[in-house]
Amino acid sequence: MARNILGTSLISCSTEPMTGFFRTGLCDTCADDGGQHMVCAQMTRDFLEFSHSRGNDLMSPLPEYGFPGLKEGDFWCLCRGRWEEAHAAGVAPRIRLEATHASVLEYIDLDVLKSYAI
User: Fold this and answer.
1) What CATH number is attached to the domain comprising 49?
2) Domain count, the chain
3) What was the pLDDT predicted at 1?
């Protein structure tokens, strides 16, 4: 059973839209997840524009992949590195602690994560 950064069972981040490396709604991960999709974040316009400026357009729908495009307020499993980039740039979105994978703690201090808690 996957754990969250608080040490309890990982809860769902979002099923509408469906998110996660495994598309189960959980920000679960494995060795094959090169992007480390572990941070459950609530999208903001600033973050979505920042991500687009970095070459990852999360706003545009890709119907061929069943991806509706994200909008402000949606929850999504973000790549750990992109969240850190956004944090450094001052545009990191708030996160759902109970839905953020415990492996994030290998890279980001718990106090930092808690300061972004929803």
Assistant:
1) 3.30.56.110
2) 1
3) 84
